[in-house]
Write a structure and sequence with these properties.
Radius of gyration: 25 Å
Helix content: 10-25%
Largest sheet: 7 strands, antiparallel
Number of strands: 20
Length: 386
């Protein structure tokens, strides 16, 4: 519940859709527009905004995780009330509200930004705690009607008799970067420097990651004769817009920009099928953030008992970069179904890896400068069935 009020502009033309967290399904009409995927991922929450004439917009944040309770619902509500009183004082409004087949415990307090008000709502369903945050005008003492109307459409779609069936979807659960730093990055750069031979010197190098982007650069000089130094610089940037779900309809967007002296490289999207204990999978993906790919490779090489045969491994397409230009491509890989069921206590993840490399057939040596550094410029997008 520590999410901050974010400021962003949502593009026009958004269409009606639905948000889904565990068993909670929240349809929304076109008047509610989704926030940017990068912001949703950073906050780990879905965002909906509705602009009202003559007033500030309404903003709703729906955290994408509903943790399991370690106690019963009554204990959870008592502890949450105690936490709210202790954090915000005895004067804040805490009450109950019934909407959308759910009984919400809510807190009304001032927001930290822009003089707005904030409603924090929480409800328990089948042992999980679901939360919502609604940013409202500062003078609103009740939940605005558009927000109440939105929540009235909430449905519980799994785990109860008579509820509508729903096909599980591959929803994005996180983005990971192969973050090399310190000695690890220096070792890679040293290998690239050694490949230059005695005719040049490497003076700078680096990998710089954004949420879903990576820059790489190398610079140095070569000797011309015995006294003249000729500087050189190469590098580029890859930006990826990944869909929130692998639905076979929403495309991936790739932008590959190369410096003028960077020899042509390409980017491809490769699917990896992971299966194993949830903690083991998430730990292996988390190790990528520390520059360690070994745990992930071991998961790919050794399948856990109870996991179906691996699928994937296909390459969705190639985007060839051009020196001094920005190349763009949109790819829409097949959605893929849930596949065979996994054993109890196991998790299956579709891990989509954006791979940068020199095209096959490119001669070695000076025709592939910085190959080691480029091979570490990797982005991973994890999708889980929800």
């Amino acid at each position: 519940m520590g999410l901050a009020l974010v400021g962003w502009a949502i593009g026009a033309g958004a269409v009606a859709g639905e948000l889904w967290v565990e068993s909670l399904l929240l349809p929304h009409e076109a008047g509610w527009q989704r926030g940017p995927a990068s912001q949703e991922e950073e906050d780990d929450a879905y965002a909906l905004e509705r602009r009202e004439a003559g007033g500030p917009p309404l903003l709703l944040l729906l955290p994408r995780r509903a943790p399991r309770l370690k106690s019963d619902a009554d204990t959870y509500y008592r502890n949450l009330t105690r936490h709210w009183r202790g954090s915000y004082g005895k004067g804040v409004l805490i009450d109950w509200l019934e909407l959308g087949g759910a009984r919400w415990l809510y807190l009304r307090r001032p927001a930290r930004e822009n003089g707005q008000g904030l409603f924090q709502l929480s409800t328990v369903h089948q042992g999980r705690a679901y939360s919502l945050l609604a940013f409202v005008p500062g003078d609103a003492v009740t939940l605005p009607a558009p927000v109440q109307s939105l929540l009235a459409g909430l449905r519980w779609v799994q785990g109860g008799p008579g509820l509508p069936a729903r096909t599980a979807r591959w929803a994005r659960a996180g983005t990971h970067r192969l973050l090399l730093a310190g000695p690890g990055l220096e070792a890679v750069a040293q290998a690239d420097a050694d490949a230059l031979g005695g005719d040049g010197l490497l003076t700078g190098f680096g990998l710089d990651y954004g949420v879903a982007s990576v820059n790489w650069f190398m610079e140095g000089y070569t000797w011309v004769g015995k006294t003249e130094r000729r500087p050189w610089s190469l590098g580029g940037k890859l930006e990826v817009e990944a869909p929130a779900e692998l639905d076979g309809q929403t495309p991936w967007t790739f932008r590959l920009s190369l410096q003028p002296d960077q020899p042509a490289v390409q980017v491809s999207l490769v699917e990896r099928d992971l299966c194993g204990a949830p903690d083991t999978l998430r730990e292996a993906m988390g190790k990528l953030e520390h520059g360690l790919r070994g745990p992930l490779e071991r998961l790919l090489a050794h399948r856990s008992v109870g996991c179906p045969a691996p699928e994937g491994g296909e390459t969705a397409g190639f985007l060839a970069g051009e020196p001094g230009r920005t190349a763009t491509a949109n790819w829409t890989p097949p959605a893929g179904g849930a596949g065979p069921a996994v054993g109890a206590g196991l998790l299956r993840v579709r891990l989509m890896e954006a791979v940068l490399a020199y095209p096959p057939g490119t001669p070695g040596g000076p025709e592939r400068p910085g190959e080691g550094l480029l091979s570490r410029a990797r982005l991973f997008f994890a999708y889980e069935l929800r």
